[in-house]
Amino acid sequence: MTGWQSSAEKFRQRFLARSGEVLGRVRQLLAFAEADGLSEDARLELTGHFHFFAGAGGTYGYERVSEIGLAGEALCEKMGAAAACRQETVAASLAELADRIESELAGPAG
Amino acid sequence: MADAGVCLKILVIEDDRDIRETISTCLVEVGGFQTVEADGGQEGLRLALAEKPDVILLDVMMPTMDGPTTLACLQAEPRTGGIPVIFLTAKALTSEVNRLKELGAKGVLVKPFDPLQLPSQIEEILAGGGQ
Fold first, then answer.
1. Do B18 and A56 touch (CB under 8 A)?
2. What percent of chain B has pLDDT over 70?
3. Most distant CA pair in chain B: distance in Å?
4. Which of A46, A66, B27, B36 is such that its CA lies 20 to 30 A from the CA of A89?
5. A58 touching B, CB under 8 A?
6. B112 and A66 in contact by Cβ < 8 A?
7. How confident is the model at residue A88 (pLDDT cuts 50, 70, 90)?
8. Using CB atoms within 10 A of its CB, is residue B54 exposed (0-12), middle (13-18) or buried (19+)?
Protein backbone atom coordinates (compact mmCIF):
# COMPACT_ATOMS: atom_id res chain seq x y z
CA MET A 1 0.00 0.00 0.00
CA THR A 2 1.46 3.40 -1.00
CA GLY A 3 1.68 6.34 1.37
CA TRP A 4 -1.44 7.95 -0.03
CA GLN A 5 -3.46 4.70 -0.15
CA SER A 6 -2.68 4.15 3.49
CA SER A 7 -3.68 7.73 4.36
CA ALA A 8 -6.83 7.47 2.24
CA GLU A 9 -7.90 4.35 4.11
CA LYS A 10 -7.32 6.06 7.45
CA PHE A 11 -9.44 9.04 6.34
CA ARG A 12 -12.15 6.71 4.99
CA GLN A 13 -12.38 4.90 8.32
CA ARG A 14 -12.55 8.22 10.13
CA PHE A 15 -15.35 9.35 7.77
CA LEU A 16 -17.32 6.15 8.43
CA ALA A 17 -17.01 6.53 12.19
CA ARG A 18 -18.09 10.15 12.07
CA SER A 19 -20.95 9.33 9.68
CA GLY A 20 -22.37 6.90 12.24
CA GLU A 21 -22.39 9.64 14.86
CA VAL A 22 -23.92 12.16 12.45
CA LEU A 23 -26.66 9.72 11.41
CA GLY A 24 -27.50 9.18 15.07
CA ARG A 25 -27.95 12.90 15.57
CA VAL A 26 -29.95 13.22 12.32
CA ARG A 27 -32.40 10.56 13.54
CA GLN A 28 -32.70 12.31 16.90
CA LEU A 29 -33.53 15.62 15.18
CA LEU A 30 -36.03 13.91 12.88
CA ALA A 31 -37.78 12.36 15.87
CA PHE A 32 -38.11 15.86 17.34
CA ALA A 33 -39.42 17.11 14.01
CA GLU A 34 -42.09 14.43 13.86
CA ALA A 35 -43.14 14.98 17.47
CA ASP A 36 -43.10 18.76 17.90
CA GLY A 37 -41.54 20.34 14.82
CA LEU A 38 -38.04 21.76 14.68
CA SER A 39 -36.83 25.16 15.79
CA GLU A 40 -34.96 27.16 13.15
CA ASP A 41 -31.64 26.43 14.88
CA ALA A 42 -32.35 22.68 14.88
CA ARG A 43 -33.38 22.79 11.23
CA LEU A 44 -30.12 24.55 10.34
CA GLU A 45 -28.20 21.91 12.29
CA LEU A 46 -30.00 19.20 10.33
CA THR A 47 -29.19 20.98 7.07
CA GLY A 48 -25.55 21.08 8.12
CA HIS A 49 -25.49 17.33 8.69
CA PHE A 50 -26.83 16.59 5.20
CA HIS A 51 -24.37 19.19 3.85
CA PHE A 52 -21.59 17.17 5.48
CA PHE A 53 -22.65 14.03 3.61
CA ALA A 54 -23.06 15.98 0.36
CA GLY A 55 -19.60 17.52 0.58
CA ALA A 56 -17.64 14.58 1.93
CA GLY A 57 -19.16 11.31 0.68
CA GLY A 58 -17.60 11.25 -2.77
CA THR A 59 -14.18 12.23 -1.46
CA TYR A 60 -14.06 8.98 0.52
CA GLY A 61 -15.45 6.79 -2.26
CA TYR A 62 -19.18 7.12 -1.54
CA GLU A 63 -20.47 9.10 -4.50
CA ARG A 64 -24.10 8.06 -3.86
CA VAL A 65 -23.86 9.37 -0.30
CA SER A 66 -22.99 12.79 -1.72
CA GLU A 67 -26.00 12.67 -4.03
CA ILE A 68 -28.35 11.64 -1.22
CA GLY A 69 -26.83 14.29 1.05
CA LEU A 70 -27.50 16.95 -1.57
CA ALA A 71 -31.14 15.82 -1.84
CA GLY A 72 -31.39 15.92 1.96
CA GLU A 73 -29.97 19.42 2.09
CA ALA A 74 -32.57 20.60 -0.42
CA LEU A 75 -35.37 18.94 1.58
CA CYS A 76 -34.15 20.63 4.77
CA GLU A 77 -34.45 23.97 3.02
CA LYS A 78 -37.95 23.01 1.95
CA MET A 79 -38.71 22.14 5.55
CA GLY A 80 -37.90 25.71 6.54
CA ALA A 81 -40.58 26.98 4.22
CA ALA A 82 -43.15 24.35 5.23
CA ALA A 83 -45.87 24.92 7.79
CA ALA A 84 -45.32 23.06 11.07
CA CYS A 85 -47.90 20.41 10.16
CA ARG A 86 -46.01 19.67 6.92
CA GLN A 87 -42.67 19.24 8.69
CA GLU A 88 -43.76 15.76 9.68
CA THR A 89 -44.04 14.72 6.01
CA VAL A 90 -40.67 16.21 5.10
CA ALA A 91 -39.13 14.56 8.17
CA ALA A 92 -40.37 11.16 6.98
CA SER A 93 -38.70 11.73 3.60
CA LEU A 94 -35.49 12.78 5.32
CA ALA A 95 -35.59 9.65 7.48
CA GLU A 96 -35.73 7.57 4.30
CA LEU A 97 -32.68 9.42 2.99
CA ALA A 98 -30.85 8.76 6.26
CA ASP A 99 -31.62 5.04 5.87
CA ARG A 100 -30.27 5.11 2.32
CA ILE A 101 -27.08 6.82 3.46
CA GLU A 102 -26.60 4.17 6.12
CA SER A 103 -27.16 1.44 3.57
CA GLU A 104 -24.65 2.98 1.12
CA LEU A 105 -22.04 3.30 3.86
CA ALA A 106 -22.46 -0.37 4.74
CA GLY A 107 -21.39 -1.27 1.21
CA PRO A 108 -17.95 -1.02 -0.36
CA ALA A 109 -16.38 2.34 -1.24
CA GLY A 110 -16.14 3.12 -4.94
CA MET B 1 2.04 17.08 -10.21
CA ALA B 2 4.45 19.78 -9.09
CA ASP B 3 7.49 20.20 -11.33
CA ALA B 4 10.83 19.08 -9.95
CA GLY B 5 12.36 21.94 -7.99
CA VAL B 6 9.09 23.88 -7.87
CA CYS B 7 7.31 23.11 -4.64
CA LEU B 8 4.20 25.21 -4.30
CA LYS B 9 3.19 26.22 -0.82
CA ILE B 10 -0.59 25.98 -0.41
CA LEU B 11 -2.54 27.46 2.48
CA VAL B 12 -5.64 25.35 3.14
CA ILE B 13 -8.39 27.26 4.97
CA GLU B 14 -11.17 24.82 5.93
CA ASP B 15 -13.09 24.57 9.19
CA ASP B 16 -13.83 20.84 8.97
CA ARG B 17 -10.80 19.09 10.44
CA ASP B 18 -11.28 15.81 8.57
CA ILE B 19 -11.68 17.49 5.18
CA ARG B 20 -8.78 19.86 5.91
CA GLU B 21 -6.45 17.01 6.80
CA THR B 22 -7.57 14.98 3.78
CA ILE B 23 -6.86 17.94 1.47
CA SER B 24 -3.53 18.72 3.05
CA THR B 25 -2.35 15.10 3.05
CA CYS B 26 -3.28 14.45 -0.57
CA LEU B 27 -1.63 17.69 -1.68
CA VAL B 28 1.59 16.59 0.04
CA GLU B 29 1.53 12.86 -0.73
CA VAL B 30 -0.06 12.91 -4.20
CA GLY B 31 0.93 16.35 -5.47
CA GLY B 32 4.27 16.86 -3.78
CA PHE B 33 3.20 20.28 -2.53
CA GLN B 34 3.94 21.94 0.77
CA THR B 35 0.89 22.88 2.85
CA VAL B 36 -0.08 25.09 5.76
CA GLU B 37 -3.46 24.61 7.46
CA ALA B 38 -5.89 27.06 9.00
CA ASP B 39 -9.20 26.14 10.65
CA GLY B 40 -10.95 29.40 9.84
CA GLY B 41 -10.79 32.79 8.15
CA GLN B 42 -9.02 34.67 10.97
CA GLU B 43 -6.29 32.05 11.28
CA GLY B 44 -6.07 31.96 7.50
CA LEU B 45 -5.44 35.71 7.31
CA ARG B 46 -2.70 35.43 9.91
CA LEU B 47 -1.01 32.53 8.12
CA ALA B 48 -1.32 34.19 4.73
CA LEU B 49 0.77 37.06 6.10
CA ALA B 50 3.23 34.89 8.00
CA GLU B 51 3.74 32.06 5.50
CA LYS B 52 3.37 33.88 2.17
CA PRO B 53 1.76 30.92 0.36
CA ASP B 54 1.78 30.63 -3.43
CA VAL B 55 -1.93 29.85 -3.49
CA ILE B 56 -4.80 29.67 -1.02
CA LEU B 57 -7.49 27.00 -1.04
CA LEU B 58 -10.48 28.56 0.71
CA ASP B 59 -13.68 26.90 1.91
CA VAL B 60 -16.83 28.93 1.22
CA MET B 61 -19.06 27.93 4.13
CA MET B 62 -17.34 28.49 7.45
CA PRO B 63 -18.67 29.81 10.77
CA THR B 64 -17.57 33.22 12.11
CA MET B 65 -15.79 34.33 8.93
CA ASP B 66 -16.93 32.71 5.69
CA GLY B 67 -14.89 32.30 2.52
CA PRO B 68 -16.07 35.40 0.64
CA THR B 69 -15.41 37.61 3.70
CA THR B 70 -11.96 36.07 4.10
CA LEU B 71 -11.22 36.72 0.43
CA ALA B 72 -12.27 40.36 0.79
CA CYS B 73 -9.87 40.76 3.74
CA LEU B 74 -7.04 39.10 1.79
CA GLN B 75 -7.67 41.41 -1.16
CA ALA B 76 -7.73 44.51 1.07
CA GLU B 77 -4.27 43.74 2.48
CA PRO B 78 -1.49 44.70 0.03
CA ARG B 79 0.78 41.87 1.23
CA THR B 80 -1.82 39.18 0.49
CA GLY B 81 -3.92 40.80 -2.25
CA GLY B 82 -1.88 39.20 -5.03
CA ILE B 83 -2.08 35.60 -3.79
CA PRO B 84 -4.34 33.50 -6.04
CA VAL B 85 -7.34 32.11 -4.18
CA ILE B 86 -9.27 29.00 -5.19
CA PHE B 87 -12.65 28.47 -3.56
CA LEU B 88 -13.91 25.07 -2.41
CA THR B 89 -17.69 24.80 -2.43
CA ALA B 90 -20.28 22.05 -2.07
CA LYS B 91 -22.65 23.97 -4.37
CA ALA B 92 -21.97 23.06 -7.98
CA LEU B 93 -24.54 25.44 -9.48
CA THR B 94 -23.11 27.47 -12.36
CA SER B 95 -24.58 30.65 -10.86
CA GLU B 96 -22.75 30.00 -7.58
CA VAL B 97 -19.45 29.26 -9.35
CA ASN B 98 -19.79 32.45 -11.39
CA ARG B 99 -20.66 34.48 -8.30
CA LEU B 100 -17.51 33.26 -6.54
CA LYS B 101 -15.32 33.98 -9.55
CA GLU B 102 -16.75 37.48 -9.79
CA LEU B 103 -15.50 38.10 -6.25
CA GLY B 104 -11.97 37.71 -7.61
CA ALA B 105 -11.20 34.03 -7.06
CA LYS B 106 -8.75 32.43 -9.48
CA GLY B 107 -10.94 29.35 -9.64
CA VAL B 108 -13.61 27.27 -7.94
CA LEU B 109 -13.41 23.58 -7.04
CA VAL B 110 -16.51 21.63 -6.14
CA LYS B 111 -16.90 19.20 -3.24
CA PRO B 112 -16.82 16.29 -3.09
CA PHE B 113 -13.39 16.30 -4.70
CA ASP B 114 -11.31 13.37 -5.84
CA PRO B 115 -8.08 13.45 -3.78
CA LEU B 116 -6.14 11.90 -6.66
CA GLN B 117 -7.27 14.67 -9.02
CA LEU B 118 -7.09 17.64 -6.65
CA PRO B 119 -3.38 18.49 -7.13
CA SER B 120 -3.64 18.52 -10.92
CA GLN B 121 -6.89 20.51 -10.79
CA ILE B 122 -5.11 23.18 -8.75
CA GLU B 123 -2.20 23.26 -11.18
CA GLU B 124 -4.62 23.56 -14.09
CA ILE B 125 -6.39 26.52 -12.49
CA LEU B 126 -3.08 28.23 -11.74
CA ALA B 127 -1.99 27.68 -15.33
CA GLY B 128 -5.07 29.55 -16.44
CA GLY B 129 -7.32 26.63 -17.36
CA GLY B 130 -9.96 24.76 -15.41
CA GLN B 131 -12.81 26.36 -13.51
1. yes
2. 93
3. 39
4. A66
5. yes
6. yes
7. confident
8. middle
